Every structure is written in structure tokens, then in C-alpha cells.
Amino acid sequence: MERSNHTVTEFILVGFTTDPVMQLVLFVVFLGVYSLTVVGNTTLIVLICNDSRLHTPMYFFIGNLSFLDLWYSSVYTPKILVTCISEDKSISFAGCLCQFFFSAGLAYSECYLLAAMAYDRYAAISNPLLYAQVMSRRLCICLVIYSYTGGFVNAIILTSNTFTLDFCGDNIIDDFFCDVPPLVKLACDVKESYQAVLYFLLASNVITPTVFILASYLFIIAAILRIRSTQSRRKAFSTCSSHLVSVTLYYGSILYVYSRPSSSYSLERDKMVSTFYTVLFPMLNPMIYSLRNKDVKEALKKLVWLTQSEV
């Protein structure tokens, strides 16, 4: 029986499994991951705000990335936890739309923010003496504002085009959240115009920032090669390594899921990849940017010492 999107009042999220035991196991795993995500990103934000040594453009961007990851993970994980332990797997049409909108907006914003961070690394390495002047506080704030604006404007375009599709048959979403691949599978007919919108958004929000990041790193490599001291080269590269790892993991998983035609979507495979960039990646980012970072470690030690002194 065919029905259009305005008659759909709710969707059913299948999640990862229907086995009650595995659902309980997944609940514990996702609860642990989400707890680490909240603690890790919140701690990093607090450290950056409170320690004057971290009041630099690089840490300003890292703090905003942590805020994005904290928000991004909170769009998905609470609903995943409820789905794991509750017999009610439904999500309202409005709830699905809101989750879809915020997930798209935050994902696109993070793409732009990572590109801004690449420019920041280029400015720091290519001309360190003018770094503070080039990456002024005003420019940093503007780049963050542009990242959010670009991300959420494009999210409006994607959400409005997706939720005006005609859905037919079952309203069962074979995934753990409302995303493009499972919703396209429910659509009666995906027109070429919608596919064109997806490619446009992919090009403007993922491909373009990727090209910008690659270009920035080409200039960074050229600048590093001009450094005569081997030790200075290693130090310069180490300042970029965390960002490079973050970019590779995030962009790699997003490109894998969304750069293919809708006809080739594999929900089971895409579900696992989506888990990485929606749930695991926000947990990993604080570790990526802090484990090998001397300034963050020193700031953490100082915070722990102050806390113990007050107690």
C-alpha cells in the first residue's frame, strides 16, 4: 500500500539487533562510550577555557571541535540507549526530522571546522613569526561562525528535500538513527533532482573542504621541507599529526557512506561505518588531541592539583 510522506506519523528504528541479550550488551557498550565522550570533551573544553597557555588559535579550534563532538554524539547516543533497552523502537516523524537536521548540520559544520583548522596549521608552520597576527581572534571567531552557518544552511537544504520525498511500504528504518541511506530506501521514487542535491551537498560540504585541506597540507609539507633542522621538522610535523589523523578518520568514513549512488547503499555495511563517525569518533577526538600534547597534559595536571588543594 502506497502512502506519501505527510501520512507517516512515526518511524521504527531497527537498531543493531533484535536479540535481547545483545541489546543489553550494546547498551552497556554505548553507555560507556557516551560517558567517555562527555567526560573527555567536557574536560578538554574546561582545560582550554581555564588555562592561559591554551588560549591560542589552535586550542580555540580544538575547543570548538570538542563542543561539536559533544553535541554531535548527544544527537544519536541517548536515542540508541533507549532503543536498546525499550520495547518501543519508534521515533516520531518530527523527532526523526529534528535528529536528521541536527546530525546533518553538525556533520557539515565539523567538515568546515576541520578545514579551518588545516588553514590554522598552515599559518603556524609557514610563517610562525606572524602567526598570532594572521590568526587574529576576530578571524578565528569568524571562521567558527562561518562553519556553523555553512553547515546548518546546507542541513536545511538536505532536510527539506529529504522529508518531502514520498515514503511507501513499511516505515521501518533499518538503522539506529534517521539518515539518508535508510530513508532513501523507504522512498517510493527517488528522482534525479534529489540525487543531484545529494551530490551538490557532498561537493560543497565534503569534497571542497577536503581539497582545501589537501592543498593546505601540500603547502605545509613544502614549508616543513624548507626547515633545515631535523628536530624542528619533527616538531613542526607533530603539531599537524593529530589534525591529520582526525581528518583522515572523519572524512574517510563520511566519503565512504555518502559518495556512492543511492542504488548502491548497503544498510548493514553503512550502519557499521556510521557508528564510527557518529558515536566512536567524538570519543576518540579528545584522545587524539591530548595524548601526545604536552600543553594539555600540563594543564590537566594543574587542574587536578588545584582540585586536590581545594579538597
Automatic annotation (TrEMBL):
Q: Where is the G-protein coupled receptors family 1 profile domain?
A: 40-289
InterPro entries with a match to the protein in the record: GPCR_Rhodpsn, GPCR_Rhodpsn_7TM, Olfact_rcpt
Tell me the function of this protein: Putative odorant or sperm cell receptor.
Q: Which GO terms describe its molecular function?
A: G protein-coupled receptor activity; olfactory receptor activity
Q: Which PROSITE patterns match?
A: G_PROTEIN_RECEP_F1_1 (PS00237), G_PROTEIN_RECEP_F1_2 (PS50262)
A GO CC term? plasma membrane
Segments spanning the bilayer are 24-49, 56-72, 92-119, 139-157, 199-225, 237-259, 271-291
Question: In its UniProt entry, what is this protein called?
Answer: Olfactory receptor
Where in or outside the cell it occurs: the entry states: Cell membrane; Membrane
Alphabetized, the UniProt keywords read:
Cell membrane, G-protein coupled receptor, Membrane, Olfaction, Receptor, Sensory transduction, Transducer, Transmembrane, Transmembrane helix
Q: Which Pfam families match?
A: 7tm_4
Q: How does it sit in the membrane?
A: Multi-pass membrane protein
UniProt entry tagged with the keyword Membrane: yes
Q: What family does the database annotate?
A: Belongs to the G-protein coupled receptor 1 family.
What Gene3D superfamilies does the entry give?
A: Rhodopsin 7-helix transmembrane proteins (1.20.1070.10)
What species does this protein belong to?
Ursus maritimus
